Every structure is written in structure tokens, then in C-alpha cells.
Amino acid sequence: MSSSSQTEIRHIRPYVHYQCSCPDVNKSSVSLELEKEESFNVNSPRIQFSTFSISKLYFCNDCHQIRCPRCVQEEIVSYYCPNCLFEVPTASVKSERNRCARNCFQCPICQNTLSVLPSSEPQPPPSPISPTTVPAPTVSATGAPYYLSCGVCRWDSQEIGMTFEKATGLALQLQRTEDERPDVKEFDHLKDHFEKHMRLNTPSTALPSSLLSIPGMSSFSSRYGGMVSNNQQKSDDIVPYDAVAKVEIESGLVDDLVQLKDVNQITTVTQRINQLSDQPYKVERLQPQRIHLRTKRVKRCRSCRHILIKPEQKAQSTKFKIKLVALNNIPKITIASLPKLILNQRTQIVLKFSNPLDEEISVDLTLQDEINECGKVNILAPRFNITPYDGLWEYEEQDLVASKSRTASNSIGIYERRGDSTSIIVEITPLAEVEEFKFPLLVTYTSKNNENDGATTEEKTNETSSSKATSGDSVADESTRTLSFWTVLGLGPVIKTPSGITGTMVTGPRSEPSGSKGPTSRGSSSGNSNRK
């Protein structure tokens, strides 16, 4: 591989992505069954849209499936200002043009928050005859105008001649100037012109709103509500629209921009986007904008309508009432050790599996039956267990955690057991010089089923006694839960064998698995030092 091609693929970093089987509404059940029977192709262009990192995924407890941002439905809970954290009622959001109605403004230069300051005039020095004389009141004390100032870039509204009479209600004063713009007037006139036509052609339901809350009545109104609307008079003819305001086009704008000697006098793309009304090209025409409102949203599963994310309604709170993310429900896979992948040389990588659940889980790893063109993949430990999560592991020292959790049994392919995680060894043998070596991995984990914990103890004892009398396997099946998902592991580029390097094995920081008969990394280093 040439040096130029090596520099192009340096930006490719190792990753672990999880697949989400999105329940697409447009697909039929037959097509979904056919897709399940097909093999998982990592080279398909759909992989870029169906695989995500674990930090962007959710987990539905009702469907027992991974959910991505595409298969989640959002609902707005509340509106608030990110600067003053004031909760804005939903009814006033439209009238305020989705902006804060308080003294919250954004700097047109650096997009930071502006502060309201009183204007003042330079005061004369005190007379030497009476140095203790009370100084004359400033201009602001006598009702002088106020202005907006930025503490970051030192921009103020006096540069564009914008001042305010009072320190309160600045948003209302600025909104009046915005309403006088020709584009705002034209839009309001256009909306009023077509509002009557839209009201006549919109089908109205014959049922009152109080009856629509009854289950099944919404579908009845959608079917039979159109029969009543057909008898109403419709207006298909639209009255010709006449423009009220005309926007003047600056003819000499190009000549003015050519004659500018300072590049800083021209606005950037970000500054023009923040002022969409006119998108000025000169900095002197930029105006402060009211800060946009933010929203808090509830996220639901599209299949079962189960709530996945539900934040608290208060704007000051950052807590969640419901937070079902994938990080807290499925094992997290991390590439702990990854040496360089050399062509036709066997390389050992370390995969770390972390258990977020409060009970022990057993993991089963499966590779595809199809031959990977990039190379060979061999999992030395396809089945292993992971200890339950314990919050105390995070506060104890690493050496103490390792001494408590590392097992002494001979486990082939187990690199390390530390806390609530287990690291395994995977052997990679690249057979082709590719820019990105990636392979699919099917992860199946079994955990304890806690759905029926609310049942009474008598029912549990009766069920267990009757099931034991019939068969012993049914109890294990009902008390456990098995889930599986596909992952894609990207290991970076494959390089040719460097000159001067011989051998067929490239290992990570420690090639000996934990618990094996050979010495560990610490023992081997101490043994070598004693021999020397």
C-alpha cells in the first residue's frame, strides 16, 4: 500500500456498532420474514443506516428489542428558554414566534448571550475646591436609553443605533420592529388570504370532541365524518392574490462587496443563518435576535407505544422519570486491545464485554457461516459468563477489583475477568489488503426474567411445584430471558508486512489468557528480570 493511500485511511478508527431491526411501516410481513432469513451483509449500503453506536440506542422492555432514533416517536412535553429557564406555555409559543419573551438576546457576532446596560456620558473631574461634592447623576439615572452589550466580543447595539427606553420589556420592543419588516407583513397577509379557503376545504367531523376520547370513535369519525362534510359548500376557486409589501433588491451590493478592504466586514454563513429575514452580507446590518426556545420531549416505541424516555417537566431539572437506554439493558462491547492488522499474519485482539444488569448473564457469540473475504475470524471463547453489575466496583481500587474478580480456573480464550466485565481473545487473520476490516458478530445473552416479580409467593410455589412434576426444563425457560442482536466490528485498515518483521503471530499487551498454566504478564516480566 502506498504512502498516499495510508494517509487516506488513517482517519478510520475502530468501532463497535449495534444493528436495530427497525419496524418499517411500509414493509409487509412477507418482506420482513425474507429479510430475517437473509444473511447479515456488512458490505451492504443499508448498514450505514441500520447500525448505531450503543450510546444512541434505546431498549424497549415490552418488545424486548433495541430501538434506534429512527424507530422512536417523539412528543413535546414543554417549552423553555435555555438562558433564563422560564417555562413558556404552549398557547403563547406561536404568538412569540418560538422565541423567549424576556430579556434574552443572542449576539449577532459570536452568538453569546447579551446583557442590558445603561448608557452613560463621561463625567467631568471633581473640582479641587470641593472634592467631597456629590457627583452629578449619570444619564441612565435620568431615564437615558439602554443598550445591549456582549461580554465576549464587546459588541453593543449602539453600533447599529439600537437603544431602548426601558430596561424591561425589551423583547416586546424588538418584536415591534420585527413586525414592521416587509417579509413579516407579506407572510401575515398571505396567511389570512388562504385561511378562508383552507377552512372551507378541511373536512369536519360530525362528532364533538368529547366523544372522540372514547376508544373506537376516532376511527368511526374518520370513516363517516366525510359524509357530513360532503354536504357542506366547498370553494375550489381561489381569489387572485395581490402582494402588499415589496422587497427592494439592492442593485449595488456586489460593487460594495468588491470595494471592501477588510474581510471582517463581511458576515459569515452562521451569522446569516441566524438572521433569516434578510441574511445581510455586511456586519453593520446584523441585529440581535431573541433566543430560540428549547423543548423537552417524550420518546415512545413505534411498535407498542411504550415510553422509553420521559424527562421531568421542570426546565431546571436534568433528571428523567423514565430512561430506558441500551447502555443499561444490553452488554456493552469495547475493543480493549487492537494491534496493527498485518496481511496474512494472525493477530489477537481483546474484546471487553460489560454487564449492566444486576444479575449474572451468559453470553453466546456466533459468527456467520459464510466465508469472509477480508480474512478469517476465530473466537477462542464463544461462551462465557459475566458477573452482575455492582456500583462498588467503580469506587474500589483497580488492583483490589482485579484480585477479587479474576478467576483461577483454566478458561481458554478468557483474557481477563475484572469487576462486572469479561475480556476475551479473538484471532484475526487478514487475507486481503483492505481499508477497513470489519466482520459481523451475533451476540446472544441469557439473563433472569424479572417480569413476574410482582406475583404472589403462593402462585409462584404452585407454579414451580406443578412444573417440576411435569418437566424440569420448563422452569428454566420461564425464569430466564434470551435476547440476541447483531453487531458490526470495524478494526481499521490492513497493512502489508513491514520489512524486517518476521513471524506469524501479532499479539496485544498480554497474549496469555488469565487462569492459564503459563505465567501472567506480571509474572513473566519478573521472571525475565530474575533470569537476567
Automatic annotation (TrEMBL):
It comes from the Eukaryota. Keywords: Acetylation, Coiled coil, Cytoplasm, Cytoskeleton, Isopeptide bond, Phosphoprotein, Ubl conjugation. GO terms for cellular component: dynactin complex; stress fiber. The keyword Acetylation applies. The keyword Glycoprotein does not apply. Residues 448-476, 496-532 are annotated as: Disordered. Pfam families: Dynactin_p62. InterPro entries: DCTN4. Its main location: cytoplasm. It is found in: Cytoplasm, Cytoskeleton, Microtubule organizing center, Centrosome; Cytoplasm, Cytoskeleton, Stress fiber; Cytoplasm, Myofibril. Residues 521-532 have a biased composition (Low complexity). Subunit of dynactin, a multiprotein complex part of a tripartite complex with dynein and a adapter, such as BICDL1, BICD2 or HOOK3. The dynactin complex is built around ACTR1A/ACTB filament and consists of an actin-related filament composed of a shoulder domain, a pointed end and a barbed end. Its length is defined by its flexible shoulder domain. The soulder is composed of 2 DCTN1 subunits, 4 DCTN2 and 2 DCTN3. The 4 DCNT2 (via N-terminus) bind the ACTR1A filament and act as molecular rulers to determine the length. The pointed end is important for binding dynein-dynactin cargo adapters. Belongs to the dynactin subunit 4 family. This is Dynactin subunit 4. It comes from Rhizophagus clarus. The lineage of its organism: Eukaryota, Fungi, Fungi incertae sedis, Mucoromycota, Glomeromycotina.
